[in-house]
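User: Before I run my own analysis I want an independent prediction to cross-check against. Here's the chain; please return only the structure tokens and, at the end, one sentence I can use as a sanity check.
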Amino acid sequence: MVNNNTTGTIPHSAPGVWFAHRLLDNRKEAGAELTLQMLCFAIRGHHGGIHDALTPEGEPDEPLPLSYSEDENREAENNFFEEVVSREKLEALFTEARSEVAALFGRSGKLSALSPTAKNEVMIYLGLTERFIYSALIDADRTDAAAWEARDDRINDEVPDWKTHIEKLREHLGTLDHSGIGTLREGISDTCFNFISETSGIYRLYVPTGGGKTLSGLAFGLSTAKRCGKDHIFITSPFLTILEQNAAAIRKALGENEDTTSSAVLEHHSNVVFESGDDSDEAERLFLRQTERWQSPEIIMTSSVQLLDALFAGKTAAARRMRALQNSVIIIDEVQAIPSSCTYLFNMAANFLAYICNSVVVLCTATPPALTKLPYPVHMSCPEDIVPNAAELFHAFKRTALVFSDSSHAMMADELAQYIIGKLRKNGNCLAVMNTKSVALNLYRRIKGMAGSEVKVFYLSTELCPAHRTVIIEDIRKMLGKTPVICISTQLIEAGVDISFHCVVRALAGLDSIIQAAGRCNRNAKGDIADVFIVRCADERLDMLPDISAGVEATSRLLSDFEHEPEKLGGDLLSPESIERYYGYYYTRREKSLGYAIGKDNNAVNLLGFNEKARVAFQNEYKRSYHPSLLAQAFRTVGKRFAPISQNTIGVIVPFGSSGAQLQSLIDSKTSRDRARHLRNLQKFTVNVYENKLAELQSNGALSFNELYGIWILSNGFYSDETGISISGAEKVDNYIL
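Assistant: Structure tokens:
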């Protein structure tokens, strides 16, 4: 084809679509029209992103006009058939693809059989298949282009050495404590090693807090990957603190040193930084190559948000990674922390990855959400539990007991402060976890003034930058058992932080959060059962926190049930029966928000499913029906709006530790690669604030904006070594979680 484009590229998306239509249109075989539609969507979208089949208003996707003459088109097609593939071979491949689409329809129908949501569910699986094809095409296109530019057509995808990793893990597990609670952990890891799963399916790793599920999950992943010939193990975590902690633990278990360039583990998250040095640039280039496509190394550790983005977000870079999820073991750590708005999407994605992409999905948690009982359920394999006898495990690992204060009495700040100090006097140290930053900060200030100089009082929230929180947590660890310590925190400390207090005071919240808080108490089961005291706070406002509000209501209903029929809940509020009852109440309360709202009257489940409103709008506008078996998904509309975690915050670099030196390094940097490295480094010194807080800081002269790098910088004097961001003369804190 003639190249008249001065950029050196030849437009080929639209010609590719028209070529496919000329060759394959008007085929009468069953499924031919849908197969052609799926091919054309991938071809058209492989530069610029996948389009809406129907917009929410019912407007159809239209092929782009051709800019080539008939002679140019004919010449290009003849060249294609001569140099790439023959017409007969291409038509045979289409026939094979049509058979695959027919089989996919059947498999999708079985997953949603007899469900009232079947029409939507089948189309969601077809839509995910469309995205998978699109992902495979853009990955192949980008990989081929990179190989051509490098004049290197070798594929560097090595076969994973699962056997060696298993040997290393077994060797490491043999060095751990095998007495007391260590014996229980050993039994769990042995069970995970020996569990025989199907080659695809969804399983649950239900292990109580402190049960060693990180290494047990790895044991299952490695043994299953070896036995079933899987290409990768993916491990996702909802919080970066958990991800980094688990990655370090797994590297240690596999006998690796600090050299991550040759590691079997890839950490893909925003906190990955590269220290200056001779090998820094090469390490960064390797990291970028690996994260572009998730193809190597063998074990990829990433965030839950990155996983959801790969499946649903509109960004091409995210979509490209989706195809790597096939034929893998995918371990979803802390599955209960998947954003509630994404629940239905996550459930169907898990089904798709397991039963259509030949992967083994593991839902890993100490508080299993009741995902199988929802309108769009997860379809578990049989047996669903990797480790059986959850009730027996629960009793064996019991280290704490929940103690509820008078449920009708909400404590004011002074009373709550005295209550916490009393628990400290009796137990030697105490962790208090609040639902909002405003309550936590107010409580910290009151306790600090009341507790006495011999008591060390700490405050933790996201008003402090990550580097600052790390320092505080390490200081607390060193003091526990030696000095009276009170830590006042938001729920961020529940996110897998390895720390153990003698008692915990927890503001009433969802049972899952309460159990996570209990996991920071008597962590290694030393001594008697420790108490976790649940209190009501009179001055907390949860109107802006619907998830927490729903959790509080569900826990309150559970408490009422427990008062009247404790035997039906296993005689304990921490029992598996109680957890199941709690989630039943929670999901009932949040049912309308589980499908990821898009606008006032629609959600992502409908728009990525049958998209019935758009089909009706199409019929009204064009006076003909939209074929029910064709894709009508609003892919682009959802992709642009999809953000699992609220992103209406702005990062502010704060003056703590070496942040000043990092800023200077950024200013002195000479290349874009250096700038990117220093910006990543500065994330550990960044606090995310909401727009109203940003405006307040600006009005107080606390901020400067660097236009060259697009960053906000907090001035000296507005960051406290105790409480983080602080506005002079005011004590206001965003009333938001974390």
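Sanity check: Confidence is low (pLDDT under 50) at residues 1-7, 273-279, 729-738.
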